[in-house]
Amino acid sequence: MTLQRMSRLSCVLSVLLLLTLTTGDTEVSCVFMESCILPCSFQYTADIYIHWIQETEGHPPVHSFYYNKDQLGLQDQFFRGRTSLFKDQISRGNASLQLTGVEVQDQGRYRCHTSTMRGNKDSFINLRVDAPVSKVNMEQVGNRIICSSEGIYPKPDLTWSTSPPSNLNLQNQSSIQQTEQQLYNISSSLILSDSETDLIYICTISTRKNWRRVTLFKTSKHFKHFLYTNFFSHYNFMTFLFIVFVSYHFSFYQCFRL
Length: 258
Hints:
By secondary structure, this protein is of the alpha+beta class. The protein has helices spanning about 5-20, 235-255, and strands at about 20, 25-30, 35-40, 50-55, 60-65, 70, 85, 95-100, 110-115, 120-130, 135-140, 145-150, 155-165, 170-180, 185-190, 200-205, 210-220, 225-230. The chain has two domains: about 25-130, Immunoglobulins (Immunoglobulin-like, Sandwich); about 135-220, Immunoglobulins (Immunoglobulin-like).
């Protein structure tokens, strides 16, 4: 190869590198078993090639589109029947991917590669999966109360507290298990105090997506289980405590009138 040809080849490679644009990563949060959109845009011209690839070991093909139609012959089996493009919007530069039935295994980095007469473009999307806390259960077994929840992702936190705050040692045993779907089930049992003080026991289960809380009202004579409220704000919780306080003292007053 002559020096002149090598110079021409180097020039061509340089031009190709300049024509391949790379954008920063976009963060996308998807809810377990729901549909999710991974955004991708480009400058449209005819003869568009769109390739979605998961940036994991083996770089499995997720979805391809060229010759004006889907090309799914090489699509990874894991994504079969779960991907689609917005074909009526491709001419407007929209190469976004819709992924249905999102699973924990879908979590990771994706690359959207588009190629037109104007050049190539790579966009990267970080997909994270959340299975929010949907329900918190509480039951009393002997001198223990058990707080639990199932089907959560990522790994949740469970905390015990009381209202009003006390110096009691909240002795509890917690366990957490992961299912075949990589979701978490969490459970914790707490030994009830022999204290004569009226207390509200509070169990809170939280993730990065949301949190839920359930309470048990213990008086010196009995226990009363109140339904939990989702997504407690500080204001709502203080309102709840006020209602509990008024209800308890009203019942106490009624007893003395009898």
